[in-house]
Amino acid sequence: MTDTEQTIQSGSMIDLHTHFLPKIDDGSSSVEESLKMLADSKKQGIDICVATPHCHLHKESDLEHFLRRRQAAFEELMSAAPGSGLPAIYLGGEVYLDNNINKYDGIERLCITGTKYILVELPRQRLERRITEWIFNLTVKGLKPILAHVERNDLDELEEMGIWDLDIIFQLNAQSFLGFSERRRVKKILARDKKFVVSSDMHNVTNRPQCMLRARKVSERKFPSLTEEMFGGNGREIFVGAEPIG
Ligand SMILES: [Fe+2]
Fold this sequence. Notes:
Layout: H1 3-9, E1 13-18, H2 31-43, E2 46-51, E3 54-55, H3 60-80, E4 88-91, E5 94-96, E6 117-121, H4 130-140, E7 144-147, H5 155-161, E8 169-173, H6 180-190, E9 195-199, H7 212-222, H8 224-238
Parallel strand pairs: 1-2, 2-4, 3-5, 5-6, 6-7, 7-8, 8-9
The chain binds fe (ii) ion.
């Protein structure tokens, strides 16, 4: 049995939507908090953690600015990180789709380290149909979009927009598995024949902490046939051949 097969059997998890980089967005407020978030993740069985700080692009230079800030936060964190006991770290961004991000040069630099996968977030205001086209155009460029916390959106609106017809990955937040009414929405979404991943979207160690293990346990009871692929397998495929940055 290979190492990867052994890890999969032990129920390890992938977390590809998090805000653990220090002082870059509304996530971790200090290096200490970041390290605690990562240590909690490792303890819960997560062996890969992707940092996805919020990324808003409104002009060409915003992309470079984001990457510089992300690198600085990452280096500050790594300078204090212990040599072992943390998940493997990859960098990405949670890219806000309030305009057509295809127009910015180098948009592929926002993909998760060493991969073609890019995490995108739908805007909070009323959605417009052309967003579907923007996401589709990312795929035309050869990128592989992951739609962040899909359960937050109006499901009828997503239907009208044709979002479900896209060949992309749909990400659900672990927190949504923990409450009864949220879980009903999750159940509705999971009835679709799409590729899903569950991630934490953790922001801190207080009110939005790592909760993947709790969510996984609930999922094992409620959605047993989908749990392994949603918490591990589908995410793991993304990282085949991609080396972590930290
Ligand atoms: Fe997020």
